[in-house]
Amino acid sequence: MSAVNDTKSNSAVFFLTGIPRQEDVHPWISIPFCLMYAISIVGNSVILFIIKTDPNLHEPMYIFLSMLAITDLGLLIATIPTILGIFLFNSRDISLNACFAQLFFIHTLQCMESSVLLLMSFDRFIAICNPLRYTSILTLQRVAKMGLVFVLRSVAVIFPLPFLLKRYQYCGANVLSHSYCLHQDVMKMACSDITVNNIYGLSVAISTMGLDSLLIFLSYVMIIKTVLSVASPMECLTALNTCVSHLCAVLLFYIPEIGLALIHRFGNSSSHLLQILLGYVYRLVPPLIHPIVYSVKSKHLRARIIRVFIK
Questions:
Q1: pLDDT value at position 311?
Q2: Dihedral sign of CA atoms 12, 18, 20, 25 in order
Q3: pLDDT tens, 47-77?
Q4: Which of 77, 75, 85, 72 is nearest to 14 (CA)?
Q5: Which GO cellular component terms, listed alphabetically, does the Swiss-Prot or TrEMBL entry include (predicted)?
Q6: pLDDT digits (tens, 9 = 90+) for 19-40
Q7: Can you tell me the mean pLDDT for 217-241?
């Protein structure tokens, strides 16, 4: 009997969702999606190229920015095949193993991006609250070690998810809510008790992105407290201005993430379209906006980009 069950599970196919009731215009909708992907990939690649080739930018702040660009590129590459497959070729089906692989990479890169945002907040905290010790605390070797630790953390906590999902049978229509696979979406398709996945998924979210967001919030409380206690109003604005780009990145990441998690767990059928649209915003907007925001706010990076394109 178990052999039969394994066969059903392994041969299951999931069906991805584009934009409901707009199938006839999917080829036209693919145009802005392709443009967003192209701009995001070029923008993040330019950021990486400039940081790598300019020795003056080999500082912790820019190294963290390059980590953010790498995770953004990874998320774009992980979602391109299925999102554009739906809108360009109306290819909605995805095999069980391919779906599990995609959700592993998406969730791992999400955890890594959350970790990078935490490291960037730590960088701003040290730069503003303890500037004299900045270079001694954030050495390049220490930055590399912190990055490696957070990569290993992300892989370790997400690695069990595909194996937990593979235990189940999938015997229904298996229509997912997005154009890509997510753990909280796939587990609802199982014809079994998903309590273990629910508990583990919630534990992972709390111990990674939940903890990271709390530490980011605390770092900004300390930053604001320090700035208000030692600086004039003009100096306060100058100091906080260095945090604007990071705050934009934090809000772009966590607001759609929290909204999507709440809709997945507590939403009803009327919120299905909102869930789909929020999923696209969450996946496509941050990688598009990050290079623009950091290029505008960082005069050194902006000047280097201008020199590259003028040449």
A1: 62
A2: negative
A3: 999 999 888 888 898 999 999 999 999 999 9
A4: 85
A5: plasma membrane
A6: 877 778 888 988 999 999 999 9
A7: 78
Phi, psi of 229 (to 5 degrees): -85, -20
Spell out the long-range contacts of 276-283 with Cβ–Cβ below 8 A and sequence spacing 24 or more: 276/17, 276/19, 276/20, 276/177, 276/178, 279/177, 279/178, 279/179, 279/180, 280/179, 281/256, 282/256, 282/257, 283/75, 283/79, 283/83, 283/180
User: Domain of 226?
Assistant: 2-310
> Does the pLDDT value for residue 113 go beyond 60?
yes
Which range among 102-106, 131-135, 291-295 has the greatest average pLDDT?
102-106
| Exposed/middle/buried for residue 259 (C-beta within 10 Å: 0-12, 13-18, 19+) | middle
How far, in Å, CA of 82 to CA of 201, rounded?
A: 23
- Which residues in 79-114 are b (16+ Cβ under 10 Å) and which e? beebbbbbbeeeebebebeebbebbbbbbbbbbbbb
CB 45 within 8 A of CB 76: no
- Nearest one of 25, 21, 28, 16 to 79, comparing CA atoms: 16
DSSP H helices, the chain, are: 2-10, 26-53, 60-89, 96-129, 134-137, 140-158, 160-166, 183-186, 195-205, 211-230, 233-241, 244-266, 272-297, 299-310
Q: In this structure, what token pair is assigned to residue 72?
A: 């953004």
Cα gap 88→26, rounded to integer Å: 7
Residue 5 above 50 pLDDT?
Answer: no
Question: Distance between CA 254 and CA 281 in Å, rounded?
Answer: 12
Each residue of 204-218: pLDDT tens digit?
989 999 999 999 999
Tell me, yes or no, if the pTM score tops 0.85.
yes
Overall domain count for the chain: 1
189: CATH: 1.20.1070.10
